[in-house]
Amino acid sequence: MTHRRLSRRGFLNLGGTSLAGFALAANARAQDADFKSKDPDLVVFNAKVYTVDTRAPRAEAFAVKNGRFVAVGTTAEIRGLIGKKTQSFDAQQMTIVPGFIDTHNHGGGEGLLYNVLVGNPFEVEFVTIQSIIDKLRERAAITPPGAWVEGYFHDDTKLKDKRPLNAQDLDKVSAVHPVCVHHRGGHTGFYNSKAYAMAGVTKATPNPFGGTYDKDAKGELNGRVTDRAMQVLNKVGERVTYDPAVKEKRVFDGVGYMSKTFARYGLTSVHHDEVGVLPAMQEQRKAGGLVHRVSYEPTGDLLEAMIKNGVESGFGDEFIQLGATSEHTADGSFSERTMAISKPYKDISPPYQGNVTESQEDLNAWCERVHRAGIRMNCHANGDVAIDHVLTAYERAMKLYPRPDTRPKITHCSLTPPALIARMKAINAVPAEFSTYSYYNSDKFHFYGEEFMEHMTAFRSLIDAGIVPAAGSDFSPGPFSPLMAIQGMVTRTGWNGETWGANQKITREEALRVNTINGAYNSLEENIKGSITPGKLADFVVLADDPMTIAADKIKDIKIFRTVMGGRTTYQG
């Protein structure tokens, strides 16, 4: 697949007809034999370095020049390179690992700064239904009647009340505003009676394709709406709009806030799956406020412009590039129990097997179109039924238009029995697996049961099959802490002490790879990032404790002492 670079200004004008590009060098540069005559910019020594480079997995020190690692070795070897202008850092036996990479994230930041947050975005925290009502009432008091009042980051299994939020609860917020509480998973919403009435939805309204209007035991609408059924309600009512300059400032601030938050958790590269933030990323980059690398996953107008102008995945530079497409949704949610599975969900009557959200015919056509254009396919597929549909579409597109090393991406790829894994291996599909779910969402796994969980987020099975799974937090649906992710992958034990799918545990070393080099492989960047190797970008994280030796249930609590991108400190704890 051709990789081309576009200027920052060009990124903002992808609808134009004149696009200049040239090949992006991807091979790691060999360590300079004449290096000792050139002062490095930075030398780090006296450290426990896990390089994630199989040729030299452990080191004590390394040197950085012009944003890249140029030498890796022992403290004695590397200290000898210090020159008059070299900055040096004695790590005092702290642990250093490559910068963490998240291969699926919706974190634009604007919502975190300006929306009503009814749950904790980053950690396990239980809240009350009354606290949700109170927060929404405050917003309703300053919102015009008929306009939406909305809450975000709701987690239905993190309620102290030990019962679901319902329409009657949200009727207490307002009778003159449509009200919606969005589940952090993004595939369900909880609505009040006013929202139903404005949309003309009653208990007699049939479920649309790919969604449901849920009901209580008496057959009345209970407030919960899933997947494509939400579109019917969301299109009514008014939403607060902003002057273009105000909106631009909100998005700009959100990108800067999110980037700093990523650095605080040790992330140096993130695959972004949110619409409309690319211009703000470019502006934050120019202002020095973008402190992580971006693989931006296009959809909508941007994807159409790429197809029209012959712009392929990989277009950009080492800071911001266009990656695979945004996740093209084939089914529902793991955490919200709407993903399309081959057996009915436990304890749901009438029998329910989740939501398929696109027909096989339409999925085939979409995959063929983007693959033919040289843009990497990426579909959201959680359940085994949906993964089967996606693989069918991928196999068809790749047969019709053979291309070398395309690495079609499957976002989430949650339920993978052996037959599906074999098909994934055959086309070298790259799954972006939920990273923090084993810890954060363990309270939801009983909805599936151990039989299903033995094949869910199946890191062990995928790695054993020769597949390269990466960490994809899916934030906001899941927290994005890489250390929380590593702990969950190693233990398969959640915050509540429950262990599910223990057969899918992986080693600490493998979990570190999943969160670093595998993430680079996911975007065809393993030659420039993902390990502490001479020639690669100098992205690394300094940890206050060693994730390879600390008690497994303490990994998530390790302090991030420093995050560094391209030799530049982006976070100091």
TrEMBL record:
Domain Amidohydrolase: residue ranges: 89-571
Pfam families membership: Amidohydro_3
GO MF term set: hydrolase activity, acting on carbon-nitrogen (but not peptide) bonds
PROSITE patterns given in the database record: TAT
InterPro entries: Amidohydro_3 (IPR013108), Metal-dep_hydrolase_composite (IPR011059), Metal_Hydrolase (IPR032466), TAT_signal (IPR006311), YtcJ-like (IPR033932)
Domain of life: Bacteria
Keywords: Signal
Signal sequence, start to end: 1-25
Keyword Protein biosynthesis: no
Protein name: Amidohydrolase 3 domain-containing protein
Originating organism: Granulicella rosea
Lineage: Bacteria, Pseudomonadati, Acidobacteriota, Terriglobia, Terriglobales
